Each structure stands twice: as structure tokens, then as C-alpha cells.
Amino acid sequence: MPLLCRLACWLFAATALPVFAQGLPPEVDAALARARLPRDAVSLLVVDAEGRAPPRLSHRASVPVNPASIAKLATTFAGLELLGPAFTWSTPVYVEGPVRDGTLQGNLYIKGQGDPKLVAERLWLLLRRVQGLGIRSIAGDIVLDHSAFETVARDPGAFDDEPLRPYNAAPDALLLNYKALVMTFTPLGGQAQIQVEPPMAGLAVPASVALSAAACGDWRGGLKADFSDASRIRFAGAYPAACGERIWPVAYADPGSYATRAVAGLWHHMGGSLGGQVRSGIVPAGMVPAFESKSPTLAEVIRDINKFSNNVMAQQLFLTLSLQQNGTGTLDGSRAALQQWWRDRFADPEPPVFVNGSGLSRGERITARQLGRLLQAAWASPFMPELASSLPLTGIDGTMRRARGSIGLAHLKTGSLRDVAGVAGYVHGASGKRYVLVAIANHPQANAVRPAIEALIDWAARDL
Prior knowledge:
The protein is of the alpha+beta class.
């Protein structure tokens, strides 16, 4: 293409759409006014995903803000580039001593190496493989090795006063089922039958709870559950029959003992016997695994991280960055690894402030422009399909399923904390172009920004 033609095409692209470098689109401005949010509470950016034209909108794009869970974009894209989309986590299992007449004459060791999706079903499969070695009884102990990650001590209720929320679980090299119990309530025979997964050693759970004729509103509150005792769950209320079957995931009251209780409970539930105990420990040097359990690929894992904003899975990936580089997963090591990747990737001497990889932090800081550069780089990357498809689709799935406008026209990662709300990702324009969109509010009434964000998404999509 001749130089003059290329220049003319670029000028057309740059001038065909209005650029709101200072003012805001009228519908966005009006939505902010209705929400009583000042303009200086929001950072906004809409720019061509391929970087071939000036921004359509740039408002406070260079101001560092708390991104909340939008920070997961950096963690997951860095993970794809540093580890590769086919990366898997391995959980090796070691057998100590001979097996005689179905009894292992020593200890069984399970070494965690950060698998973020070692859920109850996969733990069952792991123990089933142990039984496949001819082991029905273990004369010694089942030893759980958590040493691949540093211990991240945390009060699960300290962040947002929600200690029973599974998203507040701390990362763990041997993270089992997100340290959560999953309770299923099924109306049957005049009562609601209760099933808890995984079965936990030393935990008493009622087999059923009374039914009520109440409407299915706050059914969890109506149960009047008491989870304070790590050895017993109590219900002082009733379950509305109108609810049908419902599932309630809840964080276990004593997360430090979760792994030992879950392994012991499931092993006995599967018909295995144990002469010793389930305990934490270290795999002896020089042992060779009998087998290894492999996780789903990173490309699959980041769909859970981004679609559903899974905090503990994001932190598992974050700590894996330093585990792969240094042999042990530490917060400091992973912060250094992610910042070095950012410097190398973007030639940015002042990278964002990364805390734990999930955005569940008050200290995380990044600018809308930095997020825009990350999303443009991802769009040009061979891993673009993996990252883009991991983002919630507006009005369809994940954390964007309740969005009311531009149904199916945007893949956007959400972020929400007290005083923080926003989105960042890609919008499909009516012209066929793709845009990077970033919109983040930092304000005591940040949640009121959602109508303005929906207006911005609609505006970005209407580019003809």
C-alpha cells in the first residue's frame, strides 16, 4: 500500500470516531450524575484492541487505582506466557514400605504442589488410584506435605467480615476442595435431607432438617445454621419446601485441619482402614512417586479464575510463578516474578503494585492505561483465544451474567470490593472492530457505577 494511502487510512481511522479525551460520552456522564458519583472517582479507557488509532475515550487513565479482581488479568496472562497454556500441576503420591495382603506396611505420602483444582471428585480419584495399587489398609500414617508453598497465615474474616465465604480461603500447596464444605438440601419424606461433600472425619452433620412452608427467599438465613464448632454443624431453623434442591458451599470453620479431616473421612468412606493417623509432614528425601495426579491445564484453570473470579485459585497460580522459578512458592518471590515479567514485557520502569495475584487486597494499584496495554498485548498474543475466552461474556455467563445491555458483545473481567467496582476486557463494535475497555471506580459508593459502566459498554459497541 503506498505511503500516502496508508497515511490517509490512518487519518480516517483516527477521525472517524469522536475522541473524548477530557469530556465523557453524554450517556455515561448522565449515569454518573444519577449515581451521584463524581467524575474524579472513575478511570475510563476505550481504545482499539490492535492499537492502530488514538483512544476513543481516555479519562484519568494514568491515575493508579485499586482494581480489585481485575488484577487477575495480570496474573492469568503472565501465567499463560511464563508457564504456557498446557501447563499442569502435579500432585505426587509416595508409598513407603511393601504391600502385604492389601496392607501398606508403612506410610503413604501426598505432596501438594499448588494444584488449584484438587476438588473432592479428584481427591476421590487420587485415593482410588491408591487402592488400585492393591492398598486397602495402611499400617502407618497418611502424611500430607504442604511445604511447596510458604504458609500464608490469614484470618478468613479479617478482609470483609465474611469468614464462611469460600473465596476467603488461604492458598495452600495441598489445597483440597478450596477448604470448603458443599451441603446439598433435598426435600424428601417430609424433611430436607442433608448431604455434605467431602465426608469429614470428626464432623457431625444432621441427616436432615425440618421443612417449612415459607417462600424460598432467604432460605440460608431461615436454616439458622451454626458453623462455629469444627466438630458439629447445627441447624436451629427449617428449610423451605418451595426451594426444591439447593446447594450451599461454605468455608470450614477450622481451615487448618481441613485437609487432614477430608483425607481421613474420604479414605474411610471408601472402605479403607488406617492404623496410624492423617497428619502433616514432609516427604523423605530420595523417595520416588508411585504415581502423580495431574490437574486440568492452565488454559482450563484460568476459565474458573476469570469467569467466576475465584480468588484462591488465582493465588494458587500466583504462588506457582515463584514455585517454578525458585523451588518454593512465596508471596515475595511471586511479586518479584510478576513485576519482572511486566518490566520485560512492557518496558515499564514502574510496574503495577501486585499483592497476592487475586486482587483481594487494599494495596493493589494499577492504571487504566497499564491495563489497556496488557489487554492490547494479549490481543496480539498467540494466547489471545485462551485469555479472551476465560473472561465473562456480558449477559451470558460468569460474573457478567446479570448484565442487561450489550448481551454477548463483550468479554469483561469484573472487579468488586468495598469502595471498588469495575470491568476490563474486550468489546465487539458494530463495525466489526474490537476495543479494549477499562472502567474502574474507587469511591465509597463505587457499586453505584454499574449503570454508567453498562452505558459505556453500549457506547463502545455502537461505533458506526
